[in-house]
Specification:
This protein has ten helices and five strands; from the N terminus they run αααβααβαβααβαβα. With 274 residues, it is of the alpha/beta class. Helix 1 packs across helix 3, helix 1 crosses helix 4 and helix 3 runs parallel beside helix 4. It has a single domain, classed as Rossmann fold (3-Layer(aba) Sandwich), CATH 3.40.50.
Length: 274
Amino acid sequence: MTTKELKSKSINYRKKILQYITVANAGHTGGSLSCTDILNVLYNKVLNVSPENFTSPDRDRYIQSKGHCVEALFVVLADKGFFPEEDLNTLCKYKSHYIGHPTKKVKGIEQNTGALGHGLPIATGVALAGKMDKKAYKVYTLLGDGELPEGSNWEAALSAAQYKLDNLCAIVDKNGLQITASTKDVCNTDPSDKKWEALGWAVKEVNGNDVEELIAAFNSLPFEKGKPSVIIANTVKGKGVSYMENQLKWHHGVPNKEQYELAQKELDESLLTL
């Protein structure tokens, strides 16, 4: 898949994220839009995982720690053929498996997540199991910058370094905003790169909304042999829709009809400029 095709896919993913959040009248819009490019590159360029090999012990594992942004993950999994896309019309509906956080009842989901700070500890255990079983699979987990203050993350980070888990890659979706305020105003974890390095991780910082920078970072894994890797992906919350970008209210805001149509128009125009 070419860079242009990937960029086009990111825009179309964003269109569908907005479509299904609007249908459901629920969802975490801003954070789903900020991590879209990360998921796009992972599933279309990096991960050895598919509907056909999802039960294979040799598949790569992706665990979404920032589970509240599951809408982005659902859209990507549908595109990859894990389930029919029309299933997403039941998002957040009574008795639907497509709820507001990842659940293993949906094909393609590795772990139930949502309580923040759980993804990295689970990923660390899965990566350790891979080393013990002498498997070649890789483990990836996506964290939000707002969940970094959770102590379980740092316990897992220490353990991953202790066991030299260079088959593990954490990605931090650093969009700078969380539910009530900026991350700096709630519980500042900057300079996060220095903290990860101090705990024994190899670190790269990239523009997390630039597919080329993301591809280059993933292609250079592990960043250092014998160390787990972390990609600090600087992103824009609400990326792709001008009135949503860097706006706190779109953490879990749902567009009305006029806002939805404007967002789709902007995204369509973005496709024309590729």
